[in-house]
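Why should sequence recovery work at all? Because a backbone constrains its sequence more than one might expect. Tight turns favour small or flexible residues, buried strands favour hydrophobic ones, and helices have their own preferences. The token representation captures these environments compactly. In the example below, the structure is given first.
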């Protein structure tokens, strides 16, 4: 054992190094001012595929972001190897502020919300008119999520060769939602894709719909051939489609400016995260009439000022009915 006398030299004494490294900890984080801008195209098991200029780059989230997760559509800042070469990995160091967010929960009792898409301008709700049968309650729920998240809704009704669209269009006519009706023959000829593409030009549009409604088939008609995804079929016994899209993916429009985001087919759309008070913002013709409402008014109770507002002729009664139907959607099952 080494022993030291009374006059030891400081330089002769060994100091025990920090087990986590010799550099002291600091709360100062780099600003990454030279980071490159990127767009998240898809997320798969912790790896994020991003578009940086004209290159596709694989990246991972930096530890300094903590629990904050990037999703498809996020605009991010990246550092590291941005060449896009095989076996290279960049690092996402910042997630920019989002302009809109499409969120859902697994069901209405699940407190954990999932961000499906960020920064989309529009939500295309794809519904088959038959095979499988349309589900108005699911459409209602998607509408509420769109209004809450800051997205403009678009109804895309498929398979009009199997059933007419009149009932669905009548149900949503008072909401003034733009719509496109397509048939399988039009989809094969390209006419349907041209009409839908006109509604998407210059925008980022997220596609959502029940499995088997033809959502991915329509997306494939809108994007370059090399970017197309696998499609499935509807089960003849259950009337349900098979999930072929397992993760959200942003794809560039073919023949127009803009992006489409194909999302996995849904069988439920939980709204546990939705604040009903925000849904009224999608009804500007009714919103002014809520000034006389009692505090925390649900807009569907005896003292709601909207009844008098509509009775005085300020808005169409059908609009108030539509608002209350959407607000009540959390209390109804999707198959009701």
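From this structural description, the recovered sequence reads:
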């Amino acid at each position: 054992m080494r022993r030291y006398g009374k006059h030891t030299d400081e330089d002769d004494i060994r100091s025990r190094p920090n087990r986590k490294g010799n550099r002291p900890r600091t709360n100062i984080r780099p600003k990454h001012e030279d980071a490159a801008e990127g767009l998240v195209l898809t997320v798969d098991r912790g790896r994020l595929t991003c578009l940086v200029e004209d290159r596709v780059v694989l990246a991972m989230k930096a530890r300094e972001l903590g629990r904050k997760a990037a999703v498809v559509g996020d605009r991010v800042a990246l550092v590291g190897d941005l060449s896009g070469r095989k076996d290279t990995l960049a690092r996402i160091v910042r997630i920019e502020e989002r302009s809109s967010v499409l969120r859902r929960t697994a069901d209405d009792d699940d407190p954990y919300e999932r961000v499906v898409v960020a920064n989309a301008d529009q939500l295309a709700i794809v519904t088959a008119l038959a095979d499988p049968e349309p589900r108005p309650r699911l459409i209602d729920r998607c509408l509420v999520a769109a209004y809450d998240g800051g997205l403009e809704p678009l109804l895309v009704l498929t398979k009009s060769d199997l059933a007419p669209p009149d009932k669905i269009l009548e149900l949503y006519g008072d909401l003034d939602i733009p719509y496109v009706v397509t048939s399988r023959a039009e989809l094969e000829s390209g006419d349907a894709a041209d009409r839908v593409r006109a509604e998407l030009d210059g925008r980022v549009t997220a596609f959502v719909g029940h499995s088997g409604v033809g959502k991915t088939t329509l997306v494939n008609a809108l994007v370059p051939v090399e970017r197309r995804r696998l499609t499935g079929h509807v089960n003849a016994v259950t009337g349900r489609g098979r999930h072929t899209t397992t993760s959200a993916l942003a794809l560039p429009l073919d023949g127009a400016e803009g992006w489409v985001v194909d999302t996995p087919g849904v069988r439920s759309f939980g709204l546990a995260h939705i604040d009903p008070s925000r849904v009224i913002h999608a009804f500007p013709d009714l919103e002014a009439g809520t000034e006389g409402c009692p505090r925390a008014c649900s807009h569907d109770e005896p003292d709601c000022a909207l009844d008098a507002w509509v009775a005085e002729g300020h808005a169409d009664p059908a609009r108030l009915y539509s608002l209350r139907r959407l607000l009540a959607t959390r209390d109804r099952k999707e198959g009701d």
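A few observations help interpret the result. The two ends are 82 Å apart (CA to CA).
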